[in-house]
Amino acid sequence: MRAITISEPGGPEALVLADVPDPVPDAGEVLVEVAASAVNRADVLQRQGFYDPPPGASPYLGLECSGRIAELGPGVTGWSVGDEVCALLAGGGYAERVVVPIGQLLPVPKGVDLATAAALPEVAATVWSNVFQIAHLRPGETLLVHGGSSGIGTMAIQLGKAVGAQVAATAGGARKLAACRELGADLVVNYREQDFVAELGAKGADVILDVVGAKYLGRNVDALAVNGRLVIIGLQGGVKAELNLAKLLSKRGAVIATSLRARPLDEKTAIVAAVREHVWPLVEAGVVRPVVDRAFPLADAAGAHRLLESSEHIGKILLTV
Q: Between the N and C ends of the chain, which has fewer C-beta atoms within 10 Å?
């Protein structure tokens, strides 16, 4: 089969389409013929040599995919060859075929085409696990989403509104702010010109979903409501910052940091099951939809990475096979 390999850690030009051995499904796994994958920030870090795959995972990039089941591993039940699926991966999505544990498989939601379904698994699993399973966002609370026009952000805005929360989102520029409003954000903040702490006002946010990290840590604590929960899932703004514990104590706040890729299989299985139960009905009803900026052919993975790094996109960037 063909897959995107990394000639040596570096820029987008390091991504090379090459012939590699076909993967073989083991017990409890299926082989998926990939229709599309999607590009994530973690892929950029792996390309640059800063984010190795977990032990036992595929060495190739790609944390999600859609496609059709081509082969069942020993002991697999409940799935059939030819089923249209999408999947959360620990790696390997930038390829023509990938092996997937059945606990990380999802049926393609009704009303979503096969390629577009590749835009759903990573963002749905990330947002549901962090905002709802960990931070316990409730109806009537306020959710602040940093990077509201990103793949994660577009899903978080929609799911927050779907459960009856008030949603605030930060983004840069009129086009991205308009996209956040169109998805349902009640308050949009241009982080280049406005202070999200001031815009939220004295009440603050009950839950903050943050992809920035160190740069925003102090201001995120300032923005927390009493009993607020800050969930950090990215480090685009650095890894080290000072934290005013007195302020955090005064708000009875919580700071939580999580990642998804390296979690054990049983935890991922539980998250994927929750996504199928809670998110998929919303997608099939049209309440929540995948947001795709554009698709690139697999051979032009470098172009897809350049677009992601430019931050000019809204929603997800796909790679089609």
A: N
Residue 198 near residue 176, CB atoms below 8 Å: no
Q: Pairing relation of β-strands 84-88 and 29-38?
A: unpaired
Residues 6 or more apart whose Cβ sits within 8 Å of residue 245: none
3-state secondary structure the chain: CEEEEECCCCCHHHEEEEECCCCCCCCCEEEEEEEEEECCHHHHHHHCCCCCCCCCCCCCCCCEEEEEEEEECCCCCCCCCCCEEEEECCCCCCECEEEEEHHHEEECCCCCCCCHHHHCHHHHHHHHHHHHHHCCCCCCCEEEECCCCEHHHHHHHHHHHHCCCEEEEEECCHHHHHHHHHCCCCEEEECCCCCHHHHHCCCCEEEEEECCCHHHHHHHHHHEEEEEEEEECCCCCCCCCCCCHHHHHHCCCEEEECCCCCCCHHHHHHHHHHHHHHCHHHHHCCCCCCCEEEEEEHHHHHHHHHHHHHCCCCEEEEEEC
Distance (Å, rounded) from C-alpha 183 to C-alpha 155? 9
Instruction: Give the pairing of strands 292-297 and 254-257.
Output: unpaired
Nearest to 86 by CA among 128, 48, 52, 114: 114
Calculate mean pLDDT across residues 37-61.
96
6, β-bridge pairs: 15
Q: How far apart are CA 95 and CA 36, in angstroms?
A: 9
Task: Write out pLDDT tens, residues 103-156.
Answer: 999 999 999 999 999 999 999 999 999 999 999 999 999 999 999 999 999 999
CA distance 30 to 53: 20
CA distance linking residue 268 with residue 44, whole number of Å: 22
Query: What is the predicted pLDDT for the residue at 223?
Result: 98
pLDDT of residue 249: 97
pLDDT at 15: 98
Residue in 35, 207, 61, 63 with CA at minimum distance from that of residue 126: 63
